[in-house]
Amino acid sequence: MLRNTLTLMPEGVQIHLPQGSPLTDIEYETSEPVIPFGCRSGACGACVVEVLDGADALGEADPEETDFLEDLGRADGAFRLACQCRLMASATVRVVEA
């Protein structure tokens, strides 16, 4: 099974997930809480990440996610809700402090 790497900055933690896995699956790959997840449905904003590399690897944001990120003041396209992403190739993200 093809596995892709999600790198979390600034720590440089690398997590390997099967291709197409939702980013919420990282909790099964590490005992450390590396991305805070709240509602897991794209409604709370706890899991906002800044995509540093590999934006295409996370799939395209749907209009609801884009609208919510805009409401959070994160509308420049570099931000995603980790709970709404699927890892299709390797990517690097930074967890945004709330």
TrEMBL record:
Gene Ontology molecular function: any one: 2 iron, 2 sulfur cluster binding
Superkingdom: Bacteria
Domain 2Fe-2S ferredoxin-type: 4-98
Protein name: (2Fe-2S)-binding protein
Organism: Streptomyces subrutilus
